[in-house]
Amino acid sequence: MKKLICAAVAVLSVLVLLCSCGTIITTNTERDMAQVIVKVNGDEILKKDFYNIYLNYVYQYYYGYGISPSDSRYASFFKNQANSILNTLIQNKIEEQKAVSLGYLDGLTEEEKKECRDKAEADIEQAVRESALSKQTAAEATTAPPATETPEPTATPEPTETPEPTRTPKPAPTPVPTATPEPEIAEKYLEEARQDYDKGLEEAGQTREDIYKQYYMEKAIEKMKDALSADAAKISDDEAKQAYDTLLSTQQTEYTGDPTKVESATGTIVYYPAGYGRYKNLLVQIDSTAQSAISALRTEANTAKTNSEKDGISDEEKAEYLKTYEEKTAEADAKLNEELATIVDRATDLLAAATAEGADFDALILEQGEDTGMITTDEDGNRVVVKDDAAYLIGPETSKYVTAFKDAPLALENVGDVSGLVATDYGYHIIKKVAAYEEGAVPFETVKETIVNNESTKAVDAFLTDLSTQWLQEAKIEKHYDRLKDIIDVT
After folding, report:
1. pLDDT (mean) for 159-175
2. Residue 426, domain member (yes or no)
């Protein structure tokens, strides 16, 4: 875990946790929370500092997975998480001390401080909105009509590693995701959440200025790390070329053996198999309920087809399976055509707009497209269309997409070409070819900047890891973990 971030978010989450789910974990008295659990070079880390973070994670796992520290099956998981939080609190404290002693905190400009305050307010508002949405969702659930059927219980998923308290990573794109518009939240729930937040700050003995100071410190630490790692960040041309050659050798061997592996590449691609290009998708979806119904019919049809090919079945059984296959396929096709008819006018208008002279395909995707795989966020959190080099990578060997979504792109000859309406079980696609790759190695000069940046990032990470270890070894650390004996194993 990096910086345990935004006490604003943590305080709010803890408040919600304690108010709405007090049975998860028992909080102690104010005096107990003021106990020192660690001293780092004389600076104290209090029990409440730990709990502000720990309870936030307990909240996430309770509402996300239905598990808590009181469940013996997950006791060791939560103890490991608690130890990780403690180690991070110590590391953060050391970094804060260094940022002060080396002058980076006092060296912040007024402009930098204003940026910190603006970011803090944006994060607070986001936390408020999330809390308000939870309130609204809970209120709506109590007034919703009862379900006609009781869903089958599902197994509680096993928790994975402790999540990093950072932005949620963007999922890998798919050609047919469901659009997720920003939910509307009633003002009364927003106001209630704001009041809860202010109350939480007051009960925690904090003010807005205290929150700002934490953001100032995070900025100072960021500047300190950038300055100290500046030399490590410098990558020579020879180092970059060596990294490129190594990557090229690996990818050429791998992608020659299985061209489809290039489609799942997560880093810089320096070798392309034959026939690959990048494509953007302007999607007009059919109704999501209809999508599910069509998918169910296709599954039934495919299952029947598979059964018809089994060894040892009679001719009568085979005929019956094939009959089911044909019937379910016909039902699915009929349902699809019915749904496509409801969106064809809109899709036709979009096609006209997409193929008009001077058309801005990205703007159409952003404003009217329904493929969330085409949308990402920029550094300021704004919705933007993915860059061309992050669009769908499709080639002759591609098999992970439905046939029509593969064949239509490959039929486009030139970069800039736009398809007609391409129907799939998800709706109508309008596809634009945005890049074409020649078979073989990507010239070093084409990817040099990216290679340099990647190598620089790795070098900086290694430098900072070593520096962090050094600072930790030099620090005078006094632990009182016996005051957390109900949370962690004390040795």
Report:
1. 37
2. yes
Same domain, 66 and 206: yes
Q: Taking the model in full, what pTM does it have?
A: 0.73
Q: Which amino acid is at 394?
A: I
Laid out side by side, the sheet with 36-40 consists of 43-46, 36-40, 477-479
Query: 85 and 206 share a domain?
Result: yes
What the block records as the tokens of 347 is 């899709």
| Maximum CA extent, the chain | 85
Asked whether residue 155 is assigned to any structural domain, the reply reads no
Asked if residue 488 lies in contact with residue 86, where contact means CB atoms within 8 angstroms, the answer is yes
Q: Are 340 and 332 in contact (CB under 8 A)?
A: no
pLDDT at 352 (0 to 100):
97
412 shares its domain with 392: yes
Return the DSSP state at 303. Answer: H
Query: Does residue 447 sit in the same domain as residue 432?
Result: no
Per the structure, the count of domains in the chain is 3
Same domain as 123, residue 202: yes
Q: Is residue 380 part of a domain?
A: yes
Mention every residue, 6+ apart, whose C-beta is less than 8 A from residue 74.
67, 68, 159
Rounded to an integer, the average pLDDT of 102-131 is 95
**Span between the terminal Cα atoms of the chain, in Å:** 23
Average pLDDT over every residue of 254-274 = 95
Judged against a pLDDT cut of 50, whether residue 153 lies above it is answered with no
- Which residue range forms the structural domain that includes residue 252? 237-264+443-460
User: Is there a contact between 271 and 255 (Cβ–Cβ < 8 Å)?
Assistant: yes
- Which tokens go with 442? 């990507």
